[in-house]
Amino acid sequence: MKKIVVFSNMYPSNEHPTYGIFVKNQVELLKDSGVIADVKAIDNPKGGKVQSLLKYGKWFAGSLLYLIGNQRNLALTHAHYAFPTGLLSLIGKRLFKIPYVVTVHGGDIDKMAKKNARIAGLTQTILQEASHVITVGERLKQEVVTNFGVLETNVTVMSMGVDRTVFHPLVKEQVRSELNLPQREQVILFIGNLIREKGVLELVQAFEELQNKLPGVSLHLVGSAKSAAFVEEVKQYIAARQIGRIHFEGTKPQKELAKWLAAADVLALPSYHEGFGLVALEAMAAGTPVVASDVGGLPYLLADGAGILVPAREVEGLAAGIQQALTADETSNRERREELVHEHSYEMILEKLLKIYGETERTR
């Protein structure tokens, strides 16, 4: 295979090490397998309206110049997110006949495509003209096929995968000691952007309920304060209600996230919408039970008792689900969780991805 280029509007940097880390992990996986891959991506999540326009404009122009300069050497392009990222791949196909693959992550369908009819139309064109569409969850596949008219044979469900060399069970006492966590507390963990749509406020409210039933419990929120105003709202709620044992832990590199997952008694993922829910898979790989909203790709991932599903935006149901996880037998459905981790392991993902690339790349 000749060189490929990966386009993404999310990619980590030294300042923002977890921003789009799943894209970088896949790129590194490809490179380790021998694929020559360049990356054209945005690695800074910050910015208001004007700054974002400038940021996206610079990235888009630089990516177009890259396509012009490398058009003869590219076997294909791979866009993460249908719009706006997939527009670059569409241009590459129409101007230089470079085939492309696009991965749909969820927000590009659930939010971006619903902004207006023009974006919805462009999203449909991008998806229909792709040589292959990858969706990170089964529900997204159904939407792509049903709502955007993509042939089902051109769509593959494939998560971003879990690195089992990073995420695996660890000795709980040892990692708790490393993280300065009390050995006897029941630790509830949240990992994700601290934004309203992730259900953070509902989680805090559910935790308040749980403290009356399970006194030795703590809540740790790991992630970026993407919305400072929302985080302040949550902190004011905590202060007004005098809720103790809630800790804002900030962002963590992946290897440390793996320790947090192994140290926790339960991972809570109360999102309003979720394309796949990769952190839930990482929790399963670490041997930690998952309680998550019954939205997006999570019902498929946590089916057959692999996790506990609760209604989104419902505090009482979330509290009940977490209590159930904290009092359940830790060995329940372990076999099913291990099957899922294997199915979504890097080895299996790489095999599928290289097959798609092989069927997509231009040979001339």
Automatic annotation (TrEMBL):
Name of this chain's protein: Glycosyltransferase
Keywords assigned by UniProt, alphabetized: Glycosyltransferase, Transferase
UniProt enzyme class: transferase
Coiled coil: none
EC number annotated for this UniProt entry: 2.4.-.-
InterPro entries, alphabetized: Glyco_trans_1 (IPR001296), Glyco_trans_4-like_N (IPR028098), Glycosyltransferase_grp1 (IPR050194), Ubiquitin_CS (IPR019954)
Molecular function terms from GO: glycosyltransferase activity
Residue ranges occupied by any Glycosyltransferase subfamily 4-like N-terminal domain in the UniProt entry: 57-164
Domain (Glycosyl transferase family): residue spans on this chain: 172-334
